[in-house]
Write a structure and sequence with these properties.
single chain; mainly beta; 6 strands
C-alpha cells in the first residue's frame, strides 16, 4: 500500500469490545504477540471522525514493540500478515482508559494500520 488510507465515518454506537476488520489480507510474515512491527497508520476519533495522529503525515513508518503499545494494538495486530491493512475500532478500556490525563482518555479510537515488516 502506497497511499494514506481514508477512514470512513462509522455509523451507530461505539463498540464496547475491540473490532478487527481486515481491509487487505497480507501474504507475508505473521505478526505475533511481543513482536516488533513496522507500520504506517492513521488514527481518528470514532465520534467525530477527526484525525488525531498519522505516521503518513510524518513521511515515514514507525517501528514499535507490540508490548509497549495500547492493549487494542497488542490484541489487534497479532495474526496480521506483512502487506496487510487492518482497521481496529478500539474502545477506551483498550486504548487510553475511561478517564485520565491523556487527551484521548474516554475516546473510542479507529486506526487503519498497514503492516510493513515484523521483527
Amino acid at each position: 500500500m502506497t497511499d494514506k488510507p481514508e477512514i470512513d465515518f462509522i455509523e451507530g454506537p461505539a463498540p464496547v469490545e475491540l473490532v478487527i476488520t481486515d481491509l487487505v489480507v497480507g501474504e507475508g510474515t505473521e505478526a505475533k504477540p511481543g513482536d516488533q512491527v513496522l507500520v504506517h497508520y492513521v488514527g481518528v476519533d470514532f465520534e467525530t471522525g477527526e484525525q488525531f495522529d498519522a505516521s503518513w503525515d510524518r513521511g515515514e513508518p514507525i517501528r514499535f514493540p507490540l508490548a509497549g503499545l495500547i492493549a487494542g494494538w497488542q490484541e489487534g495486530i497479532p495474526g496480521m500478515r506483512v502487506g496487510g491493512r487492518r482497521q481496529l475500532v478500539i474502545p477506551p478500556a483498550l486504548a487510553y482508559g475511561e478517564s485520565g490525563a491523556h487527551r484521548l482518555a474516554g475516546r473510542t479510537l479507529v486506526f487503519v494500520i498497514d503492516l510493513l515488516d515484523v521483527g
